[in-house]
Amino acid sequence: MRSVADMEFIQIDITNACNMRCSNCTRFCGNHEKTFFMDFDTFKRAVDSLDGFDGVTGIIGGEPTLHPEFERFARYMQKKFGRPCGWDTLLYPQHDFIHAVHQREFESEVLRKRPDGSHFLKKHGAGLWSNMSGTYRKYYEVIQDTFSVEYLNDHMNPSYHQPGLFARKDLGIPDDEWIKLRDNCWIQNTWSATITPKGAFFCEVAGALDMLFDGPGGWRIEPGWWKRKPEDFTDQLHWCELCGFALDNTFTRDSQEETDDLSPTLYEMIRKVNSPKYRSGKINPVKIENGVIDKGSKPEDKRFIVGDRYIEKYEDRFNRNNSVLFEMNFVELAFPADEMFGRWLNRILKRKEEWLLLKLSDCADTGEIRNMIGKRIFHPGVLLLGENVALLCRDALSVRKIGFDRIAHMASFDELEKAWEQDKVIRFADIDEKVSLKRQSMNAGGKYAVWGAGMLGEFFIETVQLSGGTVTVVVDKEPGKIGMGFHGVTIERPEVLAGQGELFDYLLIAHHTRFEEIEREALEMGVPEEKIVLPYEV
Fold first, then answer.
1. Residue 339, pLDDT score
2. How far apart are CA 261 and CA 171, in angstroms?
C-alpha cells in the first residue's frame, strides 16, 4: 500500500448523484437510496486540508457537475490554485477536444526529484472527473478556467469494469493470501484517497463503501490528515473485505449494461439497504462454488487482469459523433442601424438560442464561421471576432460580469469588446495559428529525436514543431509500434540511435517515470550525454 502523501491524486467526493448507472461503478451509483451533496463549508475545509499536498486535488462524483453549487466549488479552487497552466488551450474552437484536454494535462506536470536523485513528472493543481453530460457543457467555461487535469469518459464507447462489490471470503481466499492481494491493490496503489461528507479515507472505494452502507465515517478533515502511512490505515481496512478490486480472478462487464455483479455477501447487504438497482433487477448475484465463480454468472469469459486498461485507447473516452459539446444552438442577426446598440444587444441576449452570430454591417460575411459551426467545440466564454462579424454566447461569464444595465448604455460593439475579459477575445484569423500555450520552447531549427511514441511523445513533437524545430527520429521499445507512422515519422527501434548522431541534435525522453533508465540505455548506445535533455527544468 502507499501512504496518502505519495499519491498523485486525492479526491473530494462532492455528490453521488449521476446521470448514468454504469456497471460496477467504483462509487456504486444507482445503489444509493439517498443522494448526497457536500455542503460548501465541508468542501472548503476539504480543499484547505490538502494545503502542502504536492499533487492533484480532484473533484469527483457521481457526476460532479450535477452538484447545485458546482460553480461555487470551482471558483474556490480557482482561488486556491489560480488558472491552470495552458488554460488558454481550449479557448480556441477544437477539432480534437479530448486530445487538447490531454495536452493541457501534460502542461500541468512538474518535474520532481526522488530521494535517490532520479526524476519523475508529477501532475499538480485542480482536477475534474466527469462523464461530460449536459451539465458539463453548462459549466464548460468555468471548468476550463479552473482545472489543469480532466479525466473524462462519456461512457459511449465500450469500457469494461471489474466487479467492486465482491467479498474475498466468498471466494475462500485465506488470510495470508488476501493480505498480499490487499496490500497490492491496483486502485490504492495507482488511484487515490478521498474525502467524503463523512471524513477522509485512505482509499476512494473505502469512502464510497462507507457512504453506501452507512459506515462509521473517516478521519477528521483537518490539515495534514493526508500524511498518514499504511500503518495508520488499520481502522479503515475492514472496507477492503467488501471490495473486489484487489482480486485478480474475477471478470469484467461493459459499463453500458448498467448491471452490477455481486458476490453472495454483498448481494445480501445491497438487498438490505433497499438499493434502487436491486429493486429494478439490475443486480447479478454471482454464484460461487468452492471458491470458483460459476461460468454462467459471468457476462462474458473475459478475465480481469490487474493492470488491464478498462478502456483501450484514451481517445475512446470521448465519442465525437454523439457528444453534446458539439451541439450549437445559434441564430444569425444583423444590427439594425436605427436602433441603439446596447438596447438591441440586451434584447437579443434574452433569446432562447445560446449563440448569437452578429453581423455588424450589411457587408459582413459570416460564411466561414457558419462552416466551422458543428465541426468544432466552441468555448462559451469567448468573443470571436471577424471582419464586421462576431460570435458570442449569451451565457458567457463576461456577459454576467458586465451586466445588462451596463450593456444597455453601450453605444457600439467596440465598447462591448473592451469590457469583455480580454484574454477571451479571439480573432477569427488566429484560430488555426493558436494551438496551445507551451511551457518550454525548443530551439528553432534544431533536430530532435523522441524516445516514446505515446501521448507524451505527441506532446513533445507538437512542442518541437511549434517552436520551429524538426523531429527526425522517433523510437519505442514496444514491438507492435515499430514501423508505424507517428506524426509524419516512422517509429523505429531505439538501437537506431547508436552511431547516428548526425540525425539529431537533442534526444527527448517522453516517459513520465523512467528518465534515468532510458538515459542509461541511450548513453550505452553512444548517445552523447549533452544531447539528452529532460522535458522540463528541474
1. 92
2. 14
Other CB atoms within 10 A of residue 43 CB? 23
**C-alpha span between 58 and 151 (Å, rounded):** 10
What b/e string do you get for 186-209 counting C-beta neighbours within 10 Å, with b at 16 or more?
Answer: ebbeebbbbbbbbbbbbbbbbbbb
User: Could you give the CA distance from residue 384 to residue 369 in angstroms, rounded to a whole number?
Assistant: 10
Q: What are phi and psi of 303, to 5 degrees?
A: -75, 135
Q: Give the residue among 475, 466, 468 at the shortest CA–CA distance from 508.
A: 475
Residue 436: all three cell numbers together: 496551445
Q: Dihedral sign, CA of 55, 60, 65, 67?
A: negative
- 410 is written with which cell numbers? 453601450
Domain boundaries, the chain: 4-297, 328-430, 447-533
DSSP 487: T
Residue 390: strand pairing partners: 358, 385
Q: At CB < 8 A and 24+ separation, what contacts does 35-44 make?
A: 36/197, 36/211, 37/67, 37/68, 37/69, 38/12, 38/13, 38/14, 38/67, 38/196, 38/197, 39/197, 40/69, 40/72, 40/73, 40/76, 42/197, 42/221, 43/12, 43/14, 43/69, 43/73, 43/76, 44/76
**How much is the pLDDT for 434?**
52
CA 59/CA 71 separation, integer angstroms: 12
Q: What is the DSSP letter of 379?
A: P
Backbone phi, psi, residue 516, to 5°: -65, -40
Please give the C-alpha separations between residue 284 and each of 25, 273, 328, 352, in angstroms, as whole numbers. 14, 16, 40, 45
CA gap 187, 476 in Å, rounded? 28
Give the pLDDT of residue 302.
Answer: 57
Q: Which residue has the cell 495507482?
A: 190
Question: What is 447-533's CATH topology?
Answer: Rossmann fold (3.40.50)
State pTM to two decimals.
0.87
What distance, in Å, lies between the first and last C-alpha atoms of the chain? 28
Q: Tell me which residues of the chain have a pLDDT lower than 70.
A: 300-314, 432-442, 512, 534-538
* pLDDT confidence of residue 537: 44
Determine whether 436 is exposed, middle or buried from the number of CB atoms within 10 Å of its CB (0-12, 13-18, 19+).
Answer: buried
**What are the start-end ranges of the E strands in 312-463?**
330-334, 355-359, 383-386, 389-393, 425-427, 447-451
